Amino acid sequence: MKKLLFIVVLMCVMVLYCSTVFGAVITREDLRGDSDFIDKIMELQSDKNDVVASNAVYVATNGSDSNTGTIDKPYATVYYAISKAKAGTVIYVRGGTYNQNIVITKSGTKDNYIQIKNYPNEKPIFDHTNYSTDGGAMIDFSNANYVHIEGLTLCHKNLVSHSGYGIKMNKGKYIILKNIEIYDINVPDPTSSKVGANAIILYANDASNPISNILIDSCYIHDCQTGWSEGISVNGNSEYVNVINSRIENIGNIGLDFAGHFNACKDSSLDQARYCTAVGNVVKGCVSPNATSYGLYNDGGRNNTFDRNIVTECSGGIEIGSEEGGAYADYPVKGVVVKNNLVYNNIQAGISVGGYDNENTGIVCDTKVYNNTLVNNGNDNEGKELGVNKVNGLDVRNNIFYKSSTSATKELIKIRFDETLASNITFGGNCYYSPYAKDKFKVSRYGVTTVGFDNWKTLSGETGIYADPIFIDNYNINKNSPCVNAGDNTVDVGFYDLLNNYRNVDNIDIGCYEYQTGEVPTTESTTKITTESTTETTTIITTESTTQTTTESTTETTTGNVASSWDFSDSNWSDKTTSKTVYTVNGLTVKHNGYTGSSINGFKFDKNAETIATNGYHIQLSAKKGDKIKVYVKINKSSSQNAVLALASLKEGKTEKITTSSVATSKTANVYVSFDIDSAGDYVIYTDNTSSASVFYTSVAVENSVLMGDVNLDGVFDANNAALVLKQCINSSTLTSDDSLYRGDIDLSGSIDLKDVIKILNIINK
Asked: What is the pTM of this model?
């Protein structure tokens, strides 16, 4: 019987595995927000919404607000149910059609959200076809926090003279919107700017009360005529908004917009959507009758990420822009990352970066475009896969730029301005291809056309290739592709490709997919440090216990999952001089001990005594045996100076030091150092007081370096491990050791479930 059960479950897993062609596996590294909120999101990834809560009240189409709210005597309106709710209350909405709106007036708590959910296996539809009030929102948050809404459908809001929305939020924190369908939210005249519509709008106008820690998960937004507005708009004083695994389709303008500087918030320093992320979304058919409408748009936001999305059949694919300039020059668009996306068959550019004109738009700074696949975009007169406008700092690496058109007039790259307005642009490790000859490859730059790929390499410093990537299904690559193992390994592109395959197999591939062969790599024994300067060598340095120093031409690759990380390169430290002394992001904690200095290019930690930091900022974090702590720094130095980084164990009181030596010929260098952890515990990273150079910390990450998935501890990653993990899902006593249990949780969700089985099968299959 147990054998039969195992076979049945295995078949179910394989069906589930085959059905997960797209949809990102979400890890803590993908998310933005407070640690507790990220914990909550990770819990929801395995929540099936099929267990009825005991502390519930009910709403039904045959109910009455004079009832008691039980399943037998339900309320008639969600609004009345909310008035009776308290922290921890679950409001179940039974199936049927409702002609009412929902105003959220109450808050839950960190441990007890107020939840409004569909009753399991039933579909409640909020239909405003005959709703009495024009405009307004179907769900309106009135400064409510800790609220979870799931499984509702909102539709047929046809506006006449007032703007209207599916879901609107002016204030709110710790809000979850999951499995919500919104469609047919329409303006009367798509060409008029007098009335706007959004499926979801976050419009934070209070400088003292940002919208923060928001999840939009697995929602389906489609067939909305939004006019000049967007499907999902995040605007004003908004931060830590996560849009994941959702579908946005057939929107009459932009699909998703992280916006800024449109006077939503009167404090210009806060009038930007920031530290937001869009992961695993499909965006299709966003076309406006008025203007170019990109599927994914960062218009004025900063420090936002677009990762593992598919964008197709829109006016344009992904744009990082800055429509507003002038007064907002002090708060530019910067720190945006676009990686692992598939962008194809869009009307204009695949990816566009920069303010689009010289007079009225702002400049876009420090943008990274990594490992995207761009195919047959821009088949209008513009004809470009990548368009570059007003920028200062753009790093373009490991992308595929492909066009099947035989017309030599179709350009893969177009840089609109000269170096005065388009500066500090880096190309490297990209693959370019179109059927016309390599020597007819064209790039335009401020009206000047460069012909020939070799000439383009000379002009741009490109290190990549001109070659057919040999696409297979959905523009994936196979083992014969020249893009396999051909990427720039210095790029931090994350741990998964578009199909949730590990990136850390062999050398990184070019494009959004990673072709995988062999086993998942194990821990490396040597601590290395790399430079990002023009030098071609990688300097390997040693710890105190090692005496040898060598130089190689290899580059260290990531060896496992990121357990926690923090990018300091553009963190908001505006409150660093206040009484707040502890900052926690993505599992890492920075403690403030009084030092108030900082740097625009990273965060400077004061030189501290070897006995744990006492006179400045330091990084405190937790790590397990086998983890690797990787610290990226920028060092201001002369040839006679050294920078000494130290790792101290709070548990054991020991210190490991790594000293940099001549890491670059220039005064400033970007480097990283790694510490291998041999004992679990809490650690502190700091600058040792023997340093003569100034050190600016730019990011730190804890990487798991053990062979995840190897639950039988035999050093082999194979189907036997998948079988054991599956048995653990059925019988929780199969894996007995702590090490096996830890390795079985391959997605680091905190528990072993079918998602871990699917991930192991995925890796083995590839």
From this structure: 0.70
pLDDT at 235 over 80: yes
Higher pLDDT, 704 or 271: 271
Residues 230 and 246 sit within 8 Å (Cβ to Cβ): no
Decide if 57 is inside a domain: yes
Q: What is the helix (H) or strand (E) element at residue 202, kind and residue range?
A: strand 197-204
The closest alpha carbon to 76, from 50, 106, 102, belongs to: 102
Q: What amino acid occupies position 642?
A: N
Shortest CA distance to 285 belongs to which of 223, 350, 232, 349? 223
Domain that holds residue 85: 53-291
**The pair of three-digit structure tokens given for residue 579, joined into one six-digit string:** 């009484």
Three-state SS string across 396-422, please? EECCEEECCCCCCCCCCEEECCCCCCE
Tell me which residue of 367, 408, 360 sits closest to 387, measured CA to CA: 367
Rounded to whole angstroms, the Cα distance separating 374 from 30 reads 22
408 domain-assigned: yes
Do 149 and 276 share a structural domain?
yes
pLDDT tens-digit series, residues 361-418: 888 999 999 999 999 998 655 568 999 999 999 999 999 999 887 655 567 888 988 8
The dihedral over CA atoms of 538, 539, 540, 542, expressed in degrees to the nearest 10, equals -160
Which carries the bigger pLDDT value, residue 668 or residue 340? 340
CA distance to 176, 610, 623, 648, 652, per residue, from 655 (Å): 42, 8, 15, 4, 9
Two tokens, residue 662: 């001549």
Last residue in a domain, options 260, 291, 322? 291
Beta bridge mates, 684: 620, 648
Cα separation, 297 vs 37, whole angstroms: 25
Q: Secondary structure of 610-664 in the HEC alphabet?
A: CCCCCCCCEEEEEECCCEEEEEEEEEECCCCCCCEEEEEECCCCCEEEEECCCCC
Mapped onto helix, strand or coil, the DSSP state of residue 35 is helix
Residues 96 and 93: their CA atoms lie apart, in Å, by: 9
385: tokens are: 């896969």
Report yes or no on 203 lying in a domain.
yes
Backbone angles phi, psi at 633, to 5 degrees: -140, 160
| Structure tokens, 283 | 């965006």
The greatest distance separating any two alpha carbons of the chain, rounded to the nearest whole angstrom, comes to 81
Length of the chain: 766
Of residues 724 and 743, more confidence is placed in: 724
Could you read off the pLDDT of 468-510 as tens digits, one per residue? 999 988 899 988 999 999 999 888 898 899 998 888 666 899 9
Q: Of 320, 309, 311, whose CA–CA distance to 260 is shortest?
A: 320
Where a domain ends, among 291, 310, 344?
291
Q: What is the pLDDT of residue 589?
A: 58
Distance of CA 252 to the CA centre of its chain: 25
Amino acid at 473: D
Q: What's the number of domains the chain is made of?
A: 4
Tell the burial category of 254 from Cβ atoms under 10 Å away from its Cβ (0-12, 13-18, 19+).
buried
Where residue 664 falls (left for φ over 0; alpha for ψ -120 to 50; beta otherwise) is beta
